[in-house]
Structure formats: structure tokens, C-alpha cells
């Protein structure tokens, strides 16, 4: 098989696979982004609270 035939075959197979891809809708992307922001915010608040408690306890010991 010549290199050009391999390239054409690769292109055709890639195009065929790309046709099978299901892209998310705008609503799905928005919902996922909102979920990520909420989870990151909750984790941030939790870690800030733990940091505050630990720093207060260490400063009271010292």
C-alpha cells in the first residue's frame, strides 16, 4: 500500500469516526459548567473552614 493510499484511508476512517461522535448540547455544557463551579466552591469553602480551624488551634497552642 502506497503512502498516499494510507493517508486517504486514514482520512476516510477518521471522517467516519467523527460522524459517530455525539456532541453535547449547549444546555448540557452549561449544566456541567454550573455543576463544576458549585462543587469547586463547596470544596473551597470546606478547605477554608478547615484551615481556619487548624490555624486557630495551632495559634492557641503556641
Automatic annotation (TrEMBL):
Q: Does the keyword Membrane apply?
A: yes
What's its membrane topology?
Single-pass membrane protein
| Signal peptide limits | none
Per the record, the gene is secE
Q: What GO molecular function annotations does the UniProt record carry, in alphabetical order?
A: protein transmembrane transporter activity
Q: How does it assemble?
A: Component of the Sec protein translocase complex. Heterotrimer consisting of SecY, SecE and SecG subunits. The heterotrimers can form oligomers, although 1 heterotrimer is thought to be able to translocate proteins. Interacts with the ribosome. Interacts with SecDF, and other proteins may be involved. Interacts with SecA.
Q: Which keywords does this Swiss-Prot/TrEMBL entry list? A: Cell inner membrane, Cell membrane, Membrane, Protein transport, Translocation, Transmembrane, Transmembrane helix, Transport
Q: Under the cellular component aspect of Gene Ontology, which terms does the record hold?
A: plasma membrane
Its domain of life reads Bacteria
InterPro entries with a match to the protein in the record: SecE_bac, SecE_sf, Translocase_SecE/Sec61-g
The protein's location, in the record's own words, is: Cell inner membrane; Membrane
Q: Which organism is it from?
A: Wolinella succinogenes (strain ATCC 29543 / DSM 1740 / CCUG 13145 / JCM 31913 / LMG 7466 / NCTC 11488 / FDC 602W)
What family name appears in the similarity comment? Belongs to the SecE/SEC61-gamma family.
GO biological process: one example: protein targeting
What are the transmembrane regions? 32-54
| Designated name of the protein | Protein translocase subunit SecE
Q: What does this protein do?
A: Essential subunit of the Sec protein translocation channel SecYEG. Clamps together the 2 halves of SecY. May contact the channel plug during translocation.
Carries keyword Transmembrane helix?
yes
Query: Which Pfam family is one of those matched by this entry?
Result: SecE
Amino acid at each position: 500500500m502506497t503512502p498516499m493510499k494510507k493517508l486517504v484511508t486514514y482520512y476516510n476512517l477518521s471522517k467516519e469516526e467523527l460522524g459517530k461522535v455525539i456532541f453535547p448540547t449547549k444546555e448540557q455544557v452549561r449544566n456541567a459548567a454550573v455543576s463544576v463551579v458549585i462543587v469547586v466552591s463547596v470544596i473551597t469553602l470546606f478547605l477554608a473552614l478547615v484551615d481556619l480551624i487548624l490555624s486557630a488551634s495551632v495559634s492557641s497552642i503556641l
